[in-house]
Amino acid sequence: MKITPRTLSATLFATLSASICLGLCNQAAAFSDSELQQKMQQLVAQKAKADQPGFTVIVRKGPHLLLRGGYGLADLETATPMRADSNLRLASQTKQFTAMAVLQLVQAGKIKLEHKVGEVLKDYPAPGREVTIQQLLTHSSGIPNLSRMPEFRENKAKDATLPELLALFSSQPLQFKPGSRFGYSNSNYVLLTAIIEAASKQTYADYLQQHVFQPLGMKSTGYDVASDIVPNRAKGYEQTATGFRNADVISMTRPQGAGGLRSTVDDLNLWDQALYTSKLLPKELLQQSFVKHPGSDGKPLPYGYGWMSADLADLETHEHSGGIDGFSSYIIRIPAQQVYVAVLANSSYFDSYTMAVKLAAIAVGKPMEPTPVTLPEATLWAITGNYSFDDGTERLITLEKGVLICQTKEGARQQLTPSADGKLYLEDDTSYLTLGKISKGKAALELVVRGFGTFPAKRLQ
Questions:
Q1: Is the separation of the CB atoms in 120 and 331 below 8 Å?
Q2: What percent of the chain has pLDDT over 90?
Q3: Pairing verdict, β 55-61 and 64-71
Q4: Rounded to whole angstroms, how far apart are CA atoms 58 and 354?
Q5: CB burial of residue 461 (10 Å; 0-12, 13-18, 19+)
């Protein structure tokens, strides 16, 4: 899969462990809450479309809500507006709750992180039965991803039992030696669902309701069942060349603990606040969710237990993406300032990642706002050209009426804004270009993509 922030899947997000310069404002200005709120409102207003699928968002800093709202439409056919308390599918945000359930069962002495799958699920076949619970949590098991299997994709609208889902991958060869490296796979968290049910003697949905949602007062959160009456449920959409269509049907019996929950931003805010307490787990055990645990070679893996760690404005972050037919989401939390941002959208195309990261940057007082400068015309022309970057993308940079335009091979166009900090910022993005030496009228460029690294450019003929 090509690396680009606009198409990041959970597989790609997990590599965000690298410390990357984020292209934030160099000057750390002190903003009042009202100024922060104004900047946030301006950001969401740029993306909110009254006649299109929408999104819900919440931003909290410490005990204070800086932003909470619903934008766009929850249902295109009935023109129902999105509300702040609309209920949307969480997709892979589900994994953080699955990890919590596993750790609670560890705390209760019913399982251990070092237990092998075969010790809990007695009939589970080789070779996966030797994988440990911790390797499932950290996506280091080597078990192939059932979401990529033709049998899964071709039958996604059909109901499936948990044993039927396990059968899709349980006898498949492992893709690598367990513990040797990271490899994102939804199969890991489907298998953890079975382990939770075996250890707790409850269904996955019932366990979470009793041990997580009810204790926290998360009354609008639960396993998504199509036949349930859910107040303020949003419908999911896909974008087409001519507009929008209803998202493909996926039976929610299939995602299980890898992506089967639904919720609201208000409930998610309750969840995040609980992660600073011992309401659900002792803090020492809870913090293991956010640790980069070592693999078999001693090097840290990029994924904790349901979360991955990155950084923003030199502050550690815990983040995750979510994507399922008709829905996309991104969550980012910054413990040092108790900042929490959740963006839930009812369309697959919506760039929830960029919005969440930019809102978090505003919340910590370092907005991702370039300070525009005017470059000499000769420099602008030196930047133009057709480039191949080491991330696998090709980009054509042109000069149109004095404005630099960066266009991908697929046709997406973004304005490039030269900034006082020496960077060229991509419009509506968290990525930027750095300008190197200019030789014989040609500039050297590098692309900096948050969480992935720096990718030198090769000028194409």
A1: no
A2: 81
A3: antiparallel
A4: 15
A5: exposed
Task: Count the neighbouring beta carbons within 10 Å of the beta carbon of residue 217.
Answer: 11
- Residue-wise pLDDT for 159-205, tens only, equals 999 999 999 999 999 999 999 999 999 999 999 999 999 999 999 99
CA distances from 94 to 210, 261, 370, 398 (A): 16, 6, 35, 42
User: Coil, strand, or helix at residue 75?
Assistant: strand
User: What end-to-end distance do the CA atoms of the chain give, in Å?
Assistant: 25
Q: Name every residue whose Cβ is closer than 8 Å to that of residue 287 and which is 6 or more positions away in sequence.
A: none
> pLDDT tens for residues 116-138?
999 999 999 999 999 999 999 99
Closest CA to 170 of 138, 123, 125, 140: 125
Relative orientation angle of helices 94-107 and 186-200, to the nearest 10 degrees: 40
Write down the domain spans for the chain. Answer: 31-369, 377-460
pLDDT at 267: 98
The answer to whether domain 377-460 has CATH 2.40.128 is yes
Say which CATH class 31-369 falls into: alpha beta
Torsions phi, psi of 230, nearest 5? -115, 110
Q: 5: helix, coil or strand?
A: helix
C-alpha neighbours within 13 Å on the C-beta side of residue 193: 26
Backbone angles phi and psi of 417, in degrees to 5: -110, 115
40: enclosing H helix or E strand: helix 33-47
Model-level pTM?
Answer: 0.88
Running DSSP on this structure, what letter comes out for residue 56? E
Which structure tokens are listed for 109? Answer: 């002495």
The Cβ of residue 26 has, within 10 Å, a number of other Cβ atoms equal to 12
Which residue, chain included where needed, has tokens 């009426």? Answer: 401
| Structural contact between residues 321 and 92, judged by C-beta atoms closer than 8 angstroms | yes
Cα-Cα-Cα-Cα torsion 133, 138, 140, 145, nearest 10 degrees, comes to 90
* C-alpha span between 402 and 41 (Å, rounded): 30
- pLDDT at 186 (0 to 100): 98
Please tell me what DSSP assigns to residue 303.
B
Compute the distance between CA of residue 372 and CA of residue 128 in angstroms, rounded to an integer: 54
In this predicted structure, what is the pLDDT of residue 2? 36
